[in-house]
Sequence to fold (337 residues):
Amino acid sequence: MLILGIETSCDETAAAVVADARGIRSNVISSQVLVHAEYGGVVPEVASRQHLASVVKVIRQALADARVCPAELDGIAATCGPGLVGPLLVGLELGKSMGYALGRPVVGVNHLAGHLSAIFLEHEKNPPPPPYPHIALLVSGGNTTLFRVASRDRTIMLGSTRDDAAGEAFDKVAKLLGLGYPGGIVIDRLAAEGNPEAIFFPRALPAREDLDFSFSGLKTAVATRLAAEGRPQDGALADFCASFQAAVVAVLVRKSRTALRREGLRDLVVCGGVAANRGLRRALVAASQEDGFTLYVPAPVLCTDNAAMIALAGSWAIARGERGALDLSVDPGLPLS
Ligand code: KG4
Fold:
């Protein structure tokens, strides 16, 4: 089965062809990050227009890379939520049009289900896939959520952020420090040179056994400190980044361990853009050795937004008989049930 995936939920225009429910035949990503960097964050209307300008080119490239012509496709999967409404509409409407013209089934894919499926794609940097049930920590610019993944199509949310997502906290703190947008990767790089114990930043909801997160207080603590002491330089900047990162990582690791213990499971998948963070990976490896659970992190290119994960989740939906009607629409707040 050859499935074309289309992903346009935020600021990446992506298309991919996935074959036989796992193999990546192509994976094209056109990032808008430089366009939005000027504004210090994603501007939704600008994102929609950028998607419009590049989506056909990106799909053509994905088909060419896969050496597939449109008539050979068995189905089309496009992200239908959650995300930005304008960008989502561009990808889904184009996917539906292609499906109609080709006489192929089209399914709308939940972006979060896409992230959870990335670990099942065949990729040289992906580990062997995890068994069901397992715990998944989805940690990105828009989400910080723990799931019990019971099977391909049954996912139970165990806890989520009450305010900012972890990636959003990284990006906002990077902005406060004048490190540009998106700043997660810059903080990660600077943190490697710094002392994570130099400053103690608050860990949210620490005493609680629930699995919710909160990062807005941490962001305020950073802002308050910067207002009082000014922007740190050189070694002090590295210490600042390392200490901030340590506060985020500590909470993510603690809640993941709690989820595994509470649910009696031994397999943890970590996905989404922040899964690329080296401090988080190191801390999770240490926790997995201490507690005896198995850690699964997708290849970095499959952690951030991509269409291969959408094609895979879509191929599962098509295989179980799902079909999107022509009036299928997007839902910016689509939950994962
Ligand atoms: O999954 P993703 O590409 O897009 C969303 O669906 O949100 O994640 C992007 C987020 C951004 O907030 C970015 O700053 C963060 O992931 N990120 C990182 C790192 N690489 C990307 N955060 C911390 N450390 C990194 N190395």
User: Anything to note?
Assistant: Residues 234-263 form the longest helix (30 residues).
